[in-house]
Amino acid sequence: xxxxxxxxxxxxxxxxxxxxxxxxxxxxxxHKGGLNTIIHRADNLDALHAALAEGPWDIVISDHNxxxxxxxxxxxxxxxxxxxxxxxxxxxxxxxxxxxxTMRHGANDYIMKNNLTRLVPAIRRELREAQRRxxxxxxxxxxxxxxxxxxxxxxxxxxxxxxxxxxxxxxAKERSYExxxxxxxxxxxxxxxxxCGHMAxxxxxxxxxxxxxxxxxxxxxxxxLGGDEFGILLENCNLDHALKIAETIRETxxxxxxxxxxxxxxxxxxxxxxxxNSSSRNIEEVLSGADMACYAAKDLGRNRVHLYRAxxxxxxxxxxxxxxxxxxxxxVQENRFVLHEHxxxxxxxxxxxxxxxxxxxxxxxxxxxxxxxxxxxxxxxYNMMTTVDRWVIHxxxxxxxxxxxxxxxxxxxxxTFINLSGTSLSDAxxxxxxxxxxxxxxxxxxxxxxEITETAAITDFTNAIHFIHKIKEHGCxxxxxxxxxxxxxxxxxxxxxxxxxxxxxxxxxxxxxxRMDYAIIKAIAEIAHVGGIKxxxxxxxxxxxxxxxxxxxVDYAQGHGIDLPKPIVCLTPQ
Length: 574
Fold this sequence. Notes:
This protein is α/β, with parallel strands linked by helices. It folds into three domains: 11-144, Rossmann fold (3-Layer(aba) Sandwich), CATH 3.40.50; 158-310, Alpha-Beta Plaits; 339-358 and 385-567, Alpha-Beta Barrel (TIM Barrel).
């Protein structure tokens, strides 16, 4: 049962009134209306100043005719102290024009002293309105905070950070101020999410934020830019001091320890540093420089600070790759890739069927072909190769289906080689995608041979072995490209179930003048044949090389001495 004797806290009422009798009448009216009030009366200007200093007040009631207090002056004082407190004017005589003037200067209502029955309802109404305004303002403040702050850490978000960067850039241009931007990317953060879940990762970020805030100055801005990335804007800070701050932050994070349900974690951070001065063109350039410096720090071993410099070769390489990544994404969206085919010719006179390799090309914005060595490194670095590989598989399978539809029975013995990136080996859905495409186009699996480089296979050996076994279960073949480039090529060959090895072209290129290269090719061919593996020599540039390869016992040759890659005729099955 509720406690009926419990009452709301008394209403704090400031009464501006010089007449004690009128104050008593008003107090009786409030009591009669059921209001529990604490009334403080100010009857002169000094008393009003003192009362306002003792606030806050829930409501203000003011007489219009207090000799020592000008009405408009009193209203102004109250509003300057509290812009939201309701003010009700109570007067014995007040004209309509005067009433309007008081409302214009902040009064919420006016009541005649000979009609005080309106007073309590007016107070209740104005208190409700004041509460409504307060609630609305708090909601607006919350929305504003959410719009410019990160919900997890309470730090400013990317939107607000970029606004402050823009302001800093403007001051650098107009007043020659110098600022520094730090771009932080946590190392090994993914391990925590994968091991303990995102709740653990979120808690780590909250705890780490507290430590980071102790390392920056009050005038600096620490922001969470996304995931495990942070930005710090050091305003009016020279480079030497900024680098010391960056190093202190790096050490703070390196020494940070996080425990979660019996697991203990240590993390590191890669920090990119860039200067904001009068030479900085825009915030996009500033952020790009800091981002490139950050990832250069990762490439150089992680857990370090790297300064952006325009002449930094590592940063220039990364900048080029970032530009390529953007172009690749656009090319994928606009379907600006094509396939070329390159003949793989048999060297054994008893074999007459030519095989072929499908090669990807990108078409630039002006319609010119771009060879894969220009864009594949960027696609691999920025995790875009799975998308590219799936495009190649789909397009190649579609082409093979077209050729079979034309009743070209010769294609039943011809093998088509399709390149895969090493990064695609960890694409959990790629095997299922290949299986689905094989069924969709009703292809003969034995006519398809996927290939990856030897280096990719050795680097991700476990995934490579699994992938190759599954591919062969589908009936497809498999090849190792660039074979011989690794130091342990032969030892791995026994453990990788391949059908073909493609001998690295660097050996073939100089085999007629370099006896060591010749011997290596011969040894590869002999060992491959012992294992029942066919060999393909890349980079066969002339007839003399082709003859030498045939004498050695290499099974197939591929290169410009046989033909040049040419566009496939992309057809649609009827």
